[in-house]
Amino acid sequence: MLNTPMQPLHLPGLQHRRTMLDSGTSKFDLTLYVLEEPSGLSFTCEYNTDLFHSDRIERMLGHLEVLLEGIVRDPDQHVSELPLLSAGERQQILIGWNDTRVAYPRDMALHQLLEAQVERTPAAIAVEFEGKQLTYRELNERANQLAHYLRAQGVGAETLVGICMERCLEMVVGFWASSRLARRMCLWTRRIRKSGWPSWSKMRRWGCC
User: Fold this and answer.
1) Which residues contact 126 (CB under 8 A, 6 or more apart)?
2) Distance from C-alpha of 162 to C-alpha of 187, rounded to nearest angstrom
3) Cα(110)–Cα(128) distance, rounded to whole angstroms?
4) Which structural domains are found in the chain, ordered by start?
5) Cβ atoms of residues 112 and 121 within 8 Å
6) Do 143 and 123 touch, CB atoms closer than 8 A?
7) Spatial contact of 184 and 160, defined as CB atoms under 8 Å apart
8) Contact by Cβ (8 Å): 184, 161
9) Could you tell me which of 143, 153, 134 has the C-alpha nearest to residue 177?
10) In the chain, is it the N or the C terminus that has fewer CB atoms within a 10 Å radius of its CB?
């Protein structure tokens, strides 16, 4: 913040004005100069071009401008509750990037949609977790094996299927296999079960596992 009063310099027969010079180098990774003038505050940003792109600096200065405007409008507001994003950025983040709606056949069950995807892109990656992957073909084959086993155990359309395991590829296999047989299923992890889910003996009596 540069607000030290500067005495006017008078030189006979010479006119002058103060200006910021671009040295072509940055002393630090990022420096913001704020100059207090009679007309208001003047901002100059000096940055390392190896670390920051001009677009990013412009966004940062834009956020600062929005913040200062919010302070002027409501000086009693907590800093943590003041806005940083412009109206366009809020629109993009809250609505634009979250508009993920896609059209899909309403007359097909989930497992049928997945099977159709297997036909279209069998070699494409269907699920990935912690460096491990399954293609749609591999996922379909494993789900078929598990579905046959569950059917042999008596699982049908009215059976409530419970899947309790940590997040992993096998959880997706179990979900896909169960969706082919049962209309109801319940997913949870051991961490959730410890916080209040019924005991294993009760779940077995209910036919969930």
Assistant:
1) 117, 134, 135, 136, 138, 139, 172
2) 6
3) 19
4) 30-96 (no CATH), 110-206 (3.40.50.980)
5) no
6) no
7) yes
8) yes
9) 143
10) N
> Length of the chain, please?
209
What H or E segment, with its residue span, contains residue 114? helix 110-120
Q: Phi first, then psi: what are they for 202, rounded to 5°?
A: -65, -40
Q: What string of pLDDT tens digits covers the 209 residues of the chain?
A: 556 666 667 778 887 776 766 777 788 899 988 888 778 888 888 899 999 999 999 999 999 999 999 999 999 999 889 999 988 888 988 888 888 777 777 777 777 888 888 889 999 998 898 888 989 999 889 888 888 888 888 877 777 777 777 778 888 888 888 877 765 556 555 554 444 544 444 444 433 44
Quick check: 161 and 206 in contact, CB under 8 A?
no
Report DSSP letters for 144-197, one per residue.
HHHHHHHHHTT--TT-EEEEE--SSHHHHHHHHHHHHH-SEEEEE-HHHHHTTP
For residue 41, give the 3-state DSSP assignment.
Answer: strand
**Tokens for 172?**
């997706």
